[in-house]
Amino acid sequence: MDSAVLRIRETQAGDLPALLALYTHLHEARIPSISPELDALWAAILADANHHLLLGFWGEELVSSCVLLVVPNLTRGPRPYALVENVVTHADFRGRGFASAMLNHARELARVANCYKIMLMTGSKMEETLRFYERAGYNRHDKTAFIQWLD
């Protein structure tokens, strides 16, 4: 496993083009054009202290990413909870433990934020993917997820 040399950090302003290119390995068909609306969204993400967009670099190349959102909450103490989304590794770099390293880093950020749980959903039905998330400490038995698509 090569994840020991993966350098993980939070996103910075200049990372947008590389991140958008990496997202083509998630589910995006093409890289979106930079626009004033996209720039405004990027600025809002960068300014949100509860939005942790984590990047994993192999040398100077962005190869993996995930998002951790910390959600303030009035229950459980009150303690926040966290959501993980957009877990992706470049297709040429899969199988090296990079996504696991990203999820471990996200878990530590959630612990520092005093979250009582992390939730993650995947659209994958592949047993290999589901087992990957279970090995990362997630389970598929405690909750049932429902999604209502709005478009």
Features:
23% strand, alpha+beta, 5 strands, 151 residues
If you had to describe this structure to a student in words, what would you say it looks like?
The protein has 151 residues and is α+β, with helices and mostly antiparallel strands. It has one domain: Aminopeptidase, CATH 3.40.630. Helix content is 28%, strand content 23%. The protein has 4 helices and 5 strands. The protein has helices at 16-22, 36-47, 98-112, 127-135; strands at residues 7-10, 51-58, 61-71, 81-89, 118-120. It has a 5-stranded mixed sheet with strand order 1-2-3-4-5, sandwiched between helices. A hairpin with a 2-residue loop joins strand 2 and strand 3.
Describe this structure in a few short sentences.
The protein is of the alpha+beta class and 151 residues long.
CATH topology: Aminopeptidase
Q: How is the largest sheet built, in terms of strand order?
A: 1-2-3-4-5
Output the CATH class name: Alpha Beta
Strand content: 15-25%
Percent of residues in helical segments?
A: 25-40%
* Rg over alpha carbons: 16 Å
